[in-house]
Design brief:
53% helix, DNA Primase, Chain A, 5 domains, DNA primase DNAg catalytic core, N-terminal domain, alpha+beta, binds zinc ion, 5-stranded antiparallel β-sheet
């Protein structure tokens, strides 16, 4: 644990302009510095750094925050790691709070595991590159035309026929074999003899976003099964939140603002070798919510490139569903039948592949296309079945504009009218999200603020600048006016403010208090654009105005929802009457306010 005054000390000693200036060429523009955003591809600068407030904000993709947020995003590391890294740079000595006995033991175990993984990676790599018993691995790579540079980039290794070389290496370095067993590297046989679990296999180290090995995948050199053996999950390796190749791809994903997702290790390698580097692979598992969250952090769209067979299509549709829910635009790259990325690139080259990316269809469109090719809507029965198949997926589309467009498209393709489709939707039960799965806060490309958000933002700025507004907010309780995204900022402002605090120091304290990057982004955006409040002399008028707008928009929002629900419901539905009454109440409220 790092004490909060240390965090502040580090922040005070780092010049944000110097820090960011090492990655981005910055030019002064008024009170800010601007440059090309390192987090999304752009040609005209929309990335701003404000030295006085020690924050950055990109008007293009919404990235923003303080020095720590910058390092976290750039290097894909956690907040404590970002603090440690900048502390080193600033020459601040961080004394960690003494760990409890349990924490100490956990940390010891973790350190031992990391050391074992590093050693194993080196051992496999050396076997492949230098040792006589690595010969089969070397000739296999030659046969697959994997050049030494590519092999080195991945840290490829080889686990030889003999099943005791890693055991020896671990013993020689004094490591615990029990710890290595937890990581799935060695096993204790029935007669107490330890042996290596991976043998006769080409080794792909699976690494975290900073390039540290956290697990291994071993591939057979012939057609034996299983083709791959993967390390089991461990405290360092959670399949559902690790993407293979992210360490090699991070920079390119940011530059392209897009990631290509493939299924296999060799698919990944084939693309990398051909110069397509914004690629990640799932590690022998289906794409998960955790993966999507991870991808959203670094890019603003994904391209799915899975096998062309029916299992691949199923995986694509599942991935599409997750992307729709998290509002991450997804596209599907298709290859000619029988081709995988490796064979396609060898036959047709990288340029044809770029064309395939350019031709990629939005995932939902591709899904409809596959579905209707398989089952043409040529009878009433089929149309109904198709509607039932499409409805649950359609409901996952989180973006209202997209919903609207696809609704029309679905009706056109199926040859049914809008009201039939809506009735079918209403008859369908909504798809509940599995318990425990939470939407990650959107950290990329926010749409321009809606009127309701503008009112909430103005309110936050008033709280920043006026002690009176803060008193008023404390008295009235803010919670009812603000939504989940804005409320934590208001709460932090109220908690950190005292009568002495000028807006500047107040926000620095607030930054130290926020741990959700999405909240930091919002804070940075507000701070970049609060000049219009500087000359305001009547904060109360503005405050009341915001509050009224929020109350009103809350009502209008609900009214819209109710009207939409009524539109998809037949009048004999049990909830119909009740909703109708509520709609009339809300309409009345609205006319009273105006
Ligand atoms: Zn940006």
């Amino acid at each position: 644990m790092i004490a909060s005054d240390k965090v502040r000390e580090v922040a005070e000693r780092i010049s944000i302009v110097d820090l960011i200036g090492e990655y981005v060429s910055l030019k002064r523009s008024g009170s800010n510095f601007t440059g090309l955003c390192p987090f999304h591809g752009e040609k005209t600068p929309s990335f701003n750094v404000n030295p006085a407030r020690e924050i950055f904000h990109c008007f293009g993709c919404g990235a923003g925050g303080d020095v720590f947020a910058f390092v976290m995003r750039l290097e894909g590391i956690s907040f404590p790691d970002a603090v440690r890294k900048l502390a080193q740079r600033a020459g601040v000595v961080i004394e960690e709070r003494p760990l409890t006995a349990d924490e100490l033991r956990a940390k010891g175990e973790r350190d031992e595991q990391r050391a074992i993984l590093e050693l194993a990676a080196r051992h496999y790599r050396e076997t492949l590159t230098r040792r006589p018993e690595g010969a089969p691995g070397r000739s296999y790579l030659q046969q697959r035309e994997v050049d030494p540079e590519t092999a080195a980039a991945y840290g490829l290794g080889y686990a030889p026929e003999r099943r005791d070389t890693l055991v020896h290496a671990l013993r020689g370095a004094g490591h615990s074999l029990d710890a290595a067993a937890v990581l799935g590297l060695v096993r204790n046989g029935e007669r107490g003899n330890w042996y290596d679990l991976l043998h006769n296999r080409l080794i792909f180290p699976i690494r975290d976003s900073q390039g540290h090995p956290i697990a291994f995948a071993g591939r057979v050199l012939d057609s034996a099964l299983p083709k791959y053996i993967n390390s089991p999950e461990s405290p360092l390796y959670r399949k559902s939140s690790v993407l293979f190749g992210l360490d090699l791809a991070l920079r390119e994903i940011r530059l392209a603002s897009a990631a290509i997702v493939v299924e296999g290790y060799f698919d990944h390698l084939a693309l990398y070798r051909a110069g397509v580097k914004n690629v990640v692979a799932t590690c022998g598992t289906a794409l998960t919510d955790g993966h999507i969250t991870l991808l959203k952090k670094h890019g603003d769209r994904v391209y799915l490139l899975f096998d062309g067979d029916s299992a691949g299509r199923k995986a694509t549709v599942r991935a599409m569903e997750l992307c729709l829910e998290q509002k991450l635009p997804a596209y599907v790259i298709t290859l000619p039948q029988g081709e995988d990325p490796d064979s396609f690139l060898q036959h047709q080259g990288a340029e044809s592949f770029q064309q395939r990316i350019a031709d990629a269809k939005p995932a939902f469109e591709q899904y409809l296309c596959w579905l209707l090719t398989k089952t043409p809507p040529d009878s009433v029965d089929r149309k109904v079945r198709l509607m039932d198949e499409i409805a649950p997926r359609y409901k996952r589309i989180a973006d209202p504009v997209e919903r609207d467009l696809y609704e029309k498209e679905i009706c056109r393709l199926l040859g049914v009218d809008l009201s039939s489709f809506r009735k079918r939707l209403a008859g369908e039960r909504a798809v509940p999200r599995p318990a425990g799965q939470q939407h990650a806060p959107a950290t990329m490309a926010p749409p321009p603020p809606k009127p309701r958000d503008r009112a909430q933002e103005s309110l936050l700025l008033l709280l920043t600048h006026y002690e009176g507004a803060r008193d008023e907010a404390r008295r009235n309780g803010l919670a009812e006016f603000l939504d989940q995204q804005h409320r934590p900022l208001a709460e932090a402002l109220l908690a950190e403010a005292d009568s002495q605090a000028d807006p500047q120091t107040l926000w620095q304290r607030v930054f130290g208090r926020l741990d959700d990057p999405a909240h930091k982004e919002l804070a940075a955006r507000l701070l970049m654009a609060d000049q219009h409040l500087a000359g305001m002399d009547d904060w109360r008028h503005a405050f009341d105005d915001c509050r009224q707008r929020l109350q009103q928009s809350g009502g209008i929002k609900e009214l819209k929802q109710v009207v939409r629900q009524l539109g998809t419901m037949s009048s004999d539905h049990p909830d119909y009457q009740q909703l109708l009454v509520r709609a009339n109440e809300l309409r009345k409220q609205k006319s009273e306010i105006q």
